[in-house]
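The material for today's practical consists of a large collection of protein records. There is nothing in a record beyond a sequence line and a structure line. As an example, a complete record with its sequence and its structure tokens follows:
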Amino acid sequence: PQRRATYGRLLSFYVTEEMVEPALEVFRLAFNNSDLAASWKIYYAMWVTGLQRRLNRDPDDVATGFLETIEGDDWIEQLGRYASGRLTYEQLLSGAETQGQRAEAFYYEAVNQLASGNREQGTRLLQEVIDTNMLGYFEFEFARRLQQTLSSPSR
């Protein structure tokens, strides 16, 4: 559990600060940790590939390859299938049963929209994440920070 928290804090910092190389380094350490639950590896893979796509960088082969292996219908598995293009946003959102799951669906679709150049739609979805008030979720913090970044004059 301690390592998971450390990986999560470090990786979330690097993602919010848009620091690709350190984020990849932490992802690889976490991914190679056999004690880390697969669910966290899915989240971490989504964080780094989303960051890379948003910044027009090629997604990490290890992260994308891992996401392509995810099967099943549990929420985290649906996220993994969505991240690898095997589930549409509409399908993901319809599977979201809780406010937290909706926040996650909104966030990951916002990242997809932003990576595709759809800034208006991406920004609207980031606001949807924030409106869920899921303060304890990494995706809430990511959305809040990304919205601030996008609204800065240099962007």
